[in-house]
Write a structure and sequence with these properties.
The protein is of the alpha/beta class and about 450 residues long. The protein folds into three domains: about 5-195, Glutaredoxin, CATH 3.40.30; about 200-325, FAD/NAD(P)-binding domain, CATH 3.50.50.60; about 340-450, 3-Layer(bba) Sandwich (FAD/NAD(P)-binding domain). The chain is built from 13 helices and 24 strands. It has helices at about 5-15, 30-45, 85-95, 105-115, 130-145, 160-165, 190-195, 200-210, 220-235, 265-280, 345-350, 365-375, 395-400; strands at about 20-25, 50-55, 65-70, 75-80, 120-125, 150-155, 175, 180-185, 215-220, 240, 280-285, 290-295, 305, 310-320, 325, 340-345, 355-360, 380-385, 405-410, 410-420, 425-430, 435-440, 445, 450. An eight-stranded mixed sheet has the order 2-1-3-4-6-5-7-8, covered by helices on one side. Strands 11-10-9-14-13-12 form a six-stranded mixed sheet. Strands 16-23-17-18-19 form a five-stranded parallel sheet, covered by helices on one side. α9 links the parallel β9 and β10 (about 240). The termini are far apart. Its cofactor is FAD. It comes from Pseudaminobacter salicylatoxidans. Keywords: Disulfide bond, FAD, Flavoprotein, NAD, Oxidoreductase, Redox-active center.
């Protein structure tokens, strides 16, 4: 099932397992059951500290399996077959359950161990979602470190009835004790902060006690990281305040236009940025959103940056490097049905719209590529473009035109997203040539109209 080179790498990683790990299987029947059992057998084959047992009487989901440290209750559950982007989550789960230490910050590890209460997490993911592994890996680690935390990672594509019952229309979707907890990419520290209600206040106090900086960079994307590196190299006291270190690069599937690097992925590039920044004496304050800038009152005085948590930072120079966000349509219904049918990532959320009707807004390369990808999943795709013609590369347009379940609408302005209060049910657009309004019945709207640099999202024509 696994390629020889991948099995060789897996064997090297799993050599770090300290304790015997049991793979407790609940396969069920059908092709996916055989696929899961083949995967578990190959894992056991390359790892002397791993054995396959079963069936798992406690798990009602099939196919699924529990990774458990022998003789303990320490374990992680996967409902589905964690390949694709989730293969790394599987490997890390095996290592952490097997006793190999995590690379997470010691402060975060201690905060996890100190959490009080009973926490049962369920995360719905898709194998094509690159934002999902970070959430899955964080919650898996938490369940290994704290016996009061349990986590099961669920492939939404294999458990469609659950997805429909819970109205999951975007991944990752996180539920805690049966209630919705979070949506989209969340870092380990974000999850901890949401569970530990006093953490934010303690963090604000710590930040406010920091001495003033010579240079404070607001924003942790590539530009902010570069600015911090260059100032720190000169021996200047430098800090970074970032809402999310890495910014939008974390959400980028593939990067092919970065000089000297033919191809990489967003999270991998961000990891390198983080290593580079921390190689210098830069004070990185992640998960800190700036809310106000108070300029210095006197020449040579200190500027003040007020954070959303109430803390304040002072600096002689402030570099604003706040990056960009997904451009939004800014039409009625868009915000109301965000993650309830309105989506911005066809790779992540596309599998949840299998055999459903969807629309793609935007006729550039991103929009046409999204429509092509979705056509292989959805029952029907309507692509809506404001201009009189598509702007995507000719090769993409030819591919799109060859698909029988795609309809292309040009000279159209989307005016409203319709819903029933819980999920998207349709979309309204205006024909700019005939000045007529049309309504389409559908279940999903994928917005692919580029980026903007305003915090609230700017409207495309």
């Amino acid at each position: 099932m696994l390629e020889a080179s991948l099995k060789s790498q897996l064997k090297a990683y799993l050599a770090n397992i300290v304790h015997v790990v049991e793979l407790v299987a609940s396969p069920g029947t059908g092709p996916k059951a055989h696929e899961m059992m083949a995967l578990l057998a190959e894992i056991a084959e390359v790892s002397r500290g791993t054995v396959v047992i079963g069936p798992d009487e406690e798990d009602v989901r099939q196919p699924s399996f529990l990774i458990r440290r022998k003789g303990t209750d320490i374990g992680v559950r996967f409902a589905g077959i964690p390949l694709g982007h989730e293969f790394t989550s599987l490997v890390l789960a095996l290592l952490h359950v097997g006793g190999h230490p995590s690379k997470a910050a010691q402060e975060a590890i201690q905060q996890i161990k100190d959490l009080d209460g009973e926490f049962y997490f369920e995360t719905y993911f898709s194998l094509s979602c690159q934002s999902c592994p970070e959430v899955v890996q964080a919650l898996n680690l938490m369940s290994v470190l704290n016996p009061r935390i349990q986590h099961v990672a669920i492939d939404g594509a294999l458990f469609q009835k659950e997805v429909e019952a819970l109205q999951v229309m975007a991944v990752p979707a996180i539920f805690l004790n049966g209630e919705h907890f979070g949506q989209g990419r969340m870092e380990l520290e974000q999850i901890i902060a949401k569970l530990d209600t006093g953490l934010q206040a303690r963090t604000a106090d710590k930040i406010s006690e920091k001495a003033s900086f010579d240079v404070l960079v607001v924003g942790g994307g590539p530009a902010g990281a570069a600015a911090a590196i260059y100032t720190a190299r000169k021996g200047i006291r430098t800090g970074i305040a970032s809402e999310r270190f890495g910014g939008q690069v974390l959400d980028t599937m593939a990067i092919e236009n970065f000089i000297s690097i033919p191809h990489t992925e967003g999270p991998k590039l961000v990891a390198h940025l983080d290593q580079h920044v921390r190689a210098y004496e830069v004070d990185v304050m992640n998960l800190q959103k700036a809310s106000r800038l108070i300029p210095a009152r006197t020449e040579g005085g200190l500027h003040e940056v007020v954070l959303e948590n109430g803390a304040s930072l002072r600096a002689r120079t402030v570099i604003l490097s706040t990056g960009a966000r997904w451009r939004q349509m800014n039409v009625p219904g868009e915000q109301e049905y965000r993650n309830k049918g309105v989506a911005y990532c066809p790779h992540c959320d596309g599998p949840l719209f299998k055999c459903r009707r969807v629309a793609v807004i935007g006729g550039g390369n991103s929009g046409v590529e999204a429509a092509i990808d979705l056509a292989g999943i959805a029952a029907h795709v309507t692509l809506i473009e404001y201009d009189s013609q598509l702007r995507a590369d000719a090769v993409l347009q030819r591919k799109l035109a060859s698909l029988s379940n795609v309809r292309i609408v040009t000279s159209a302005l989307t005016t409203e997203v319709l819903g029933d209060g819980e999920k998207v049910t349709g979309l309204v657009y205006k024909d700019r040539n005939a000045d007529r309004v049309h309504e389409i019945q559908l279940e999903g709207v994928f917005v692919q109209i580029g980026w903007c640099r305003t915090p609230s999202g700017c409207r495309a024509p």
